[in-house]
Write a structure and sequence with these properties.
The complex is a heterodimer. Helices cover 37% and strands 29% of the residues of chain A. By secondary structure, chain A is of the alpha/beta class. In chain A, the strands form three sheets. Chain A has a six-stranded mixed beta sheet, sandwiched between helices. In chain A, strands 2-1-4-5 form a four-stranded antiparallel beta sheet, covered by helices on one side. Chain B is 81% helix and 0% strand. The chains are: A alpha/beta, B mainly alpha.
Chain lengths: 335, 258
Amino acid sequence: MVARDKVAAVIIETRGLRKSYRSRQGREVKTVEAVRGVDLRVEQGEIFGFLGPNGAGKTTTLRMLATLIDPDGGEATIAGVDLRTDPGEVRRRIGYVAQGGSTWDEVTAREELTLHARMYGLRKPDAQRRATEALAAFQLTEYADRKCKTYSGGQRRRVDIALGIVHEPRVVFLDEPTTGLDPQSRAHMWEEIRRLRTEGMTVFITTHYLEEADALCDRIAIIDYGELVAEGTPASLKREISGEVVTVGLQPAGVERSEARTTSAAEVLDTQPYVRKLETHEADLRLYVDHGATAVPQIMRALEGAQIPLDSIEVHRPSLDDVFLAKTGRSLREE
Amino acid sequence: MKLLRDTWLIFQRQAVLQLRQPVWIFVGIFQPVMYLLLFAPLLKPALEGPLGLTTNAEVYRVFVPGMLVLIAIFGGLFQGFGLIAELRAGVIERSRVTPISRLALLLGRSLRDAMTLVVQAVIITVLALFFGLRTNLGDVLLAYLMLALIALMTSAVSYGVALKVRSEDALAPLMNTVAQPVFLLSGILLPISVEYGAPGWLVNVAKVNPFSWAVDGVRALFAGDIGDPKVWQSLVITGALAALAVVWAARSFARTVR
């Protein structure tokens, strides 16, 4: 990591980036601090994942970096340009793909791509050539001259991403690019995103699929309540949570859960010497142990001794889910 | 120049979108034709006495300009609906991350609306010729310029408001509330003038309505009185207001949040 830091150029750097909103609830005007001092470093040519629960400040940060909203404070440099003093030049060097789509229904993908490239100042023949290339790269040539309203969800998403990169930006921001896609389209999208990296583009992506971040991203950052709580490669973050995780289920699903049983089980297990950390998660307990295979029989014995019935027990290597839970105190899957 | 090029890009796209939904031609022409067919015939007998109008040509010279200003006002004020659909589709946000001029984002759209209105106005004028309208081509061209300025102003206002309220449910009643008094106080249906027996207070209120000046100006042009001071006065007023509206709305395009 240290050696790599020295070699790789930093393409996005933020220092103390802040944004608050004033929201009105009845007569009361409340200030919501959506992003409170974010320091990010993204290296050239990497896929950088930005994770967080809904409302954590993910999209607000992204929209600030994409020049759509002005930060209240802090600094940011993107592709060598100061975001605060020269947003116009930042726009020239970045691409941005919003979450909800970005096409007119009544025009074709080719028309959209050509117009979009021209909005970046390209002349018509150049814009047309880039559009044709982008259509081919995203396997859209076949549908290029059909109206956007006839596209499937996956095709539409590919058009959106093609729009984000048609002007060959140095950095592209993708806001939840795979949300709403079926597993097959999602796998395709991952390939497309990896291809962008191969071409030397830096990809900044938000997602709330942790397995996606794990599979796709070179480095990730986790934001919660407007602040970064973790940053690193998926492997290094998982390594921080050393050992293995044992999930103990105390009650079958569908049965009304008894707080008392969970509490007494937690009390019993928390005092066991091999349990390094214990978290209660709804009716389940998560135990962080050095070695799962030896811990499981001991856990079962301890619970049996306390006459607490067991529903399920499971050992797994720490996943980004566990990292997320450890850093934010909640599971992203609850969202 | 970048602004001109950018404006042309947006104008082109907006024109393409409109041509692919040709229903606007029918809608835009249908209502004025209804007025020509169903309302104008009542005007001659009604206005003969007070206005001293005796021929169909004279009646249409009073009525057609008012009707054209009417469609310029209403047509423009309701353009914001299209923009709200574009906001929802993510098209505006996509444009705002490019270096395209913010003024062009507004101007391209409003100029498209102005052009649409001129096309409608030409069709209606030609139809009115069959009903007995008589007028001069040169004067009428200047009248079209005035109508284009009105459409530019009202559509810019509508876009600016749409970017603020961001919902059709708020935009529709808001625009109706604005349009009704503006319309009634502009002398579109009947000229508001003391000579024709209008109450003095109503005349005074109408004087502060810029659209009332515009209607007078367009009427003077259709009547062939290009030298009437109302012509240049109304051109200056609508021109200045159009410029103000465009600047205001373009600022909304630059700093729209959320």
